[in-house]
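User: Need the bound-state model for glutamine:
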Amino acid sequence: AKHFLARVAEHQQLGAFLCTDEAVALKQAEAADARRAAGEATPLLGVPLAHKDIFVTRDFPSTAASKMLAGYRSPFDATVVEKLAAAGTVTLGKLNCDEFAMGGSNENSAFGPARNPWDTARITGGSSGGSAAAVAAGLVPAATGTDTGGSVRQPAALCNVTGIKPTYGRCSRYGMIAFASSLDQAGPMARTAEDCALLLQAMSGFDPRDATSAERPVDDYVTALRTPREGATAGQPLKGLRIGLPKEFFGEGVAPDVAQAVRAALAEFEKLGATLVDVSLPRTELSIPVYYIIAPAEASSNLSRYDGVRYGHRAREYKDLLDMYCKTRAEGFGPEVKRRIMIGTYVLSHGYYDAYYLQAQKLRRMIADDFQAAFAQCDLVAGPVTPTVARPIGSQTDPVQEYLADIFTLPASLAGLPGMSVPAGFGEGGLPVGLQLIGNYWQEGALLHAAHAFQ
Ligand code: GLN
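Assistant: Bound-state model below.
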């Protein structure tokens, strides 16, 4: 813990951490030592990590990278935090992210951007950018993230780490500061699929405090990853695995350097025995308008709780209650959060609900059905995570253009499917490229197995 805290202090310019607390970390490390001395030998015992500042924590402030929650302390730990602590991990601090997880670059944090360790003038990707930067720079061996529309997978891809968003409902959302409740999922980020399997194992499971958490036993991901496939040979551990390549993921929208790195990684999968098959996800493009209706709609509802009364920031001067609400929210929320609240309120308003929200919900179902058609032909779907390598910080000022960069991660999010980002190689400027693997529901074990064989 001391070693990693020193690295965090040394690399503050990365903006990966929003806070650390040495006293808390060392106390947890001593507790882990005591468990070890008592004979416990579980794999995560004493492993230092840090949590995206979307998870509430008793021992550290919880801000969602928003001024609205600056200085806020939760009276309880998120279930994911609680479960990882029970597994013996040591929390060093909280990690930077886009405000309320709204964004794909970490530039929307109220506390400044996180910086990509591969080139500190560039974005980490988002919204779990602090998590990706911290793991990539060796400030922690592993971290938690959350993924609503790509926020674990994108920063993992752009910072060359491994990350997995499990099936919706696998991890409890209790204590995860809500953005879009029908999409939000926790996920681990680490250097390897094996480390992700260890973390996901500890993070997953039914929680009666989250009504959408799945009452379904957790698979043994670590064993899954080490168990040979049926029919596998020594040189071909992935023999018989059919990987579907959606033609919509390999079209004009992908930069040539990214496409090349992804193709090269897929050629490695072929050498490992996998077969590549052509599939189609015909509504891929529609996932952008669908997501940018549903996610803001849910966000506008979830963020109504920040009223200056119950949590966090309150304006200093105001005339009456309404004025207090208005000033508090005007001061507390950043521009992207305000934009989402306005879009969400609009698409849910009387007269527009049927035209936007309801249509989006119908298309969401069709996007999920498209995946089921694809999975009739293959075991996993693969493609790029992002259309380009990490761009320079400050280089994108048009929010709609920024939303387009989510095209490859939104489909799995809308369908609730597990998705993973695995380091694939390098593109222009020697910058990292991620390979995305998408599985059918509850196929986290198969994703981790394939990624592990590749790594
Ligand atoms: N980039 C997407 C958004 O801005 C996804 C964010 C996320 O997954 N939290 O909404």
